[in-house]
Write a structure and sequence with these properties.
152 residues; alpha+beta; 2 domains; four-stranded antiparallel β-sheet; 5 helices
Length: 152
């Protein structure tokens, strides 16, 4: 017996280019429909955007406990935890010796510099350092815990 053979395959797209669904007819008389993809971008633009997204090494990932949407120092891998702890000390030094009462932009700059310099101190942390420099969302998430630790 021969397996199913695709006899007809076509894609439908709305006029606005917002939704697409693929319908495939397989003999003997089996039809499958994939759900529409709602993106707002035409298919070539989506493929280009996905291709441009950087993929980061697993060791750079930040972990969140179940049900919590903020970074917690205690659940991070040892290297990321060490970087954050060193960044807290770097930030304290900046506040002691450079500006004890910085405005918000300066405080944010101190925090970012503290994280990057802490990551540069670990040879194994070069992917983390690169991600801190290139991924603003990653830097923001890590800087929240560093700056939050100084509030106590």
């Amino acid at each position: 017996m021969v397996g199913p053979v695709i006899t007809n395959s076509y894609a439908s797209q709305s006029v606005s280019g917002m939704a697409t669904a693929t319908v495939t007819t397989v003999s003997p008389a089996v039809t499958t429909v994939s759900p529409p993809v709602m993106t707002g971008l035409p298919a070539p633009a989506i493929e280009g955007a996905i291709a441009e997204l950087p993929t980061w090494p697993v060791e750079t990932n930040i972990f969140f406990p179940p049900g919590v949407d903020r970074v917690m120092l205690t659940v991070q891998p040892p290297l990321i935890r060490a970087i954050m702890q060193d960044a807290i000390e770097n930030l304290r030094a900046s506040l002691m010796f450079i500006d004890a009462f910085p405005d918000s932009a300066t405080a944010q700059s101190f925090t970012h510099q503290a994280l990057i310099s802490a990551a540069q101190n670990y040879q194994a942390a070069s992917p983390i350092c690169r991600r801190l420099q290139e991924d603003d969302n990653y830097l923001l998430r890590m800087s929240r815990i560093v700056s939050f630790a100084l509030q106590f």
